[in-house]
Design goal:
This protein is an alpha/beta fold. The chain has two domains: 147 residues, 3-Layer(aba) Sandwich (Rossmann fold); 172 residues, Hypothetical protein af1432, CATH 1.10.3210.10. 56% of the residues lie in helices and 6% in strands. It has a five-stranded parallel sheet with strand order 2-1-3-4-5, sandwiched between helices. The relative contact order is 0.07. The structure holds fe (ii) ion (FE2). Fe (ii) ion binds next to loops.
Amino acid sequence: MPANDPAHGPTVERQPRILIVDDQEAVVQTLRRVLARGGYHDVVSTNDPRTAVELFRSVLPDLVLLDLHMPHIDGSAVLKLLTAEIPPESYVPILMLTADATADVKHRALSAGAKDFLAKPFDHSEALLRIRNLLETRSLHLLLGDRNATLETRVEQRTQDVHHAHLETLHRLARTAECRDDDTGEHTRRVGELAAALAERCGCSEETVTAIRHTAALHDIGKVGIPDHVLLKPGPLTTAEMDIMKTHTALGAEILAGGDSVFMQTAERIAASHHERWDGTGYPRGLSGDSIPLEARIVAVADVFDALSHGRPYRLAWTIDAVLAELTAQRNRQFDPAVVDAFLDLHQSLATHGGGLLR
Ligand SMILES: [Fe+2]
């Protein structure tokens, strides 16, 4: 449909381009005049059917007017070649021009992909109407394609927005837990990064690594429910105080329970089980070995490494060698031996190639 025809609305922004393939120059000239009268001025033509495909590729027409009987290559053969050029999701109509439009000829051409016929000698008004109809259908296809693309872009953008909002909520939740006993938030941030690197080294999937990166910081979220006199006590805890402190695992799991997303479910498993021990003497449930979720086994190593290698108000930081010796000593006891090995491997790799993750 012509862009200068306001009755049809703004469907094609440019003039539709029409390709004529007909060996008779007189027919081509007649068609050009008819098209010009209908407002179609972007017309490309050839009298040589052998150039039709190349011309089609270079001008990318919105409509093809194709003669059925031509020397060198018959119109029906050209029709097959042209329809092969049109992707299934596109609609570029081909209008056949023929002087002997028998039922059989029409049937074969329609089966091969032609959209309509014009009998020679053609009635000019009928020709314009058929051309306009085909271009209108072409315009609607283009419009639908544009709308679908716009909708897909919008859905993608909204999905991204929701994802970012979800991550932001997780990070802010982590900050809530930190502000009680980790003013800077550095411990939880470092544990998140370290646990993600360790998960990668352990061979976890990209999805799991990403989930751990964004949720490991929530491992101590349950501390929001621990009273100040226990949480902020500047020194060793009594057994009773330690029992209270231990409830931060179950409390955290309770806060995070029932989430639909992989992130929230990962966060829940980590919060619930990051103080379980490989040998079954940890808390809160006394799980052992592989029954402890892998994410929690990974965060347990990252958490202890970071806690020991950084000072607290009541103790100095351990040296890296001392921390590594402790992790090694706890293989098969506190920690999954495979995770400790992956950690030592990661440390060795970072020590060789540089990197600030383990400082
Ligand atoms: Fe903890």
